[in-house]
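Sanity check. The docking grid for adenosine-5'-diphosphate depends on where the pocket ends up, so I'm generating a full predicted complex first rather than guessing from homology. Inputs follow.
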Amino acid sequence: MTKTQGAAVLGLRGVRKSFGDHIVIDGIDLDVHRSEVICIIGPSGSGKSTLLRCMNFLEEYDGGEVVINGRLLGYSQDAGGKRVRDRDVVVDETRRGVGMVFQHFNLWPHMTALENVTAALRLVKQMPKAAADALGAEMLAKVGLSDKAGQYPARLSGGQQQRVAIARALAMQPSIMLFDEPTSALDPELVGEVLQVMRGLAAEGMTMVVVTHEMGFAAEVADRVVFMDAGRIVEQGPPSSLFGAPSHPRLRQFLETWRQRNAGFATLMSGAADQHLREGNQIHAR
Ligand SMILES: Nc1ncnc2c1ncn2[C@@H]1O[C@H](COP(=O)(O)OP(=O)(O)O)[C@@H](O)[C@H]1O
Ligand SMILES: [Mg+2]
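Predicted complex below; grid placement will be based on this.
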């Protein structure tokens, strides 16, 4: 069975969201199937974060439907068929299956790594301390941080903090994980360790939606890449077609800008390497 033949964990139908009269999400349809990894790319301001936030009702969408594991998120029909917002306890219940990782890790500074991971287990799931600690330790091990359980966030690198944030989301045993530019706030040398953890999750079959500018990661890990512009999905497909044969002009322009920026860097680096060699040769010539 291919991934797309399984049940949809998350389904969006005609989702819309405006801030005042600014339409930010303009009718989005998207199904995410079990074990699928979807990477969302697109220019800044195209609505990627807002879309992700609608997927767990951090933003209340104004139109369309977000369905998680078969349940409409955030709203019900009243007796007259009118849509009414669910009470917060009902919303929380529905979105408990959705884990989210943000660009800024948002760890509690006064709690250790383990306490950060177990806080919601204790408070939301009412899990006894021993069981929460055991599960928390297991999740920290999964992100390679068993030895940091007792550390406070200020003593951890950005990459380690983000891995704690991933462990915290995983501890709730979500059926889908959403990542909003999880490596954008990191020093470049710390990006790899976070992507490595995400690669591991994908390999284990975790269902994931990842907003990212890491095109290499998207090309390697995504089953499907979705390109957004101005609140719409402009093009989507497997990485090979989206990156290899983009058809929409806006996507081609977006990828071209990205290539130029990276090509500029590559030229600079090879220039530096040339100079290094020349200097080396001069030393040898002397
Ligand atoms: N809370 C908000 N209030 C008003 N406008 C917002 C709010 N959040 C986002 N926007 C606007 O919505 C648009 C899309 O933002 P966002 O979803 O953050 O895009 P992206 O993540 O693709 O950069 C932007 O024009 C942004 O200014
Ligand atoms: Mg964003």
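Relevant for the grid: The chain has a mean pLDDT of 92.
Also worth noting: Residues 19, 24, 42, 44-50 surround adenosine-5'-diphosphate (ligand 1) (CB under 6 Å).
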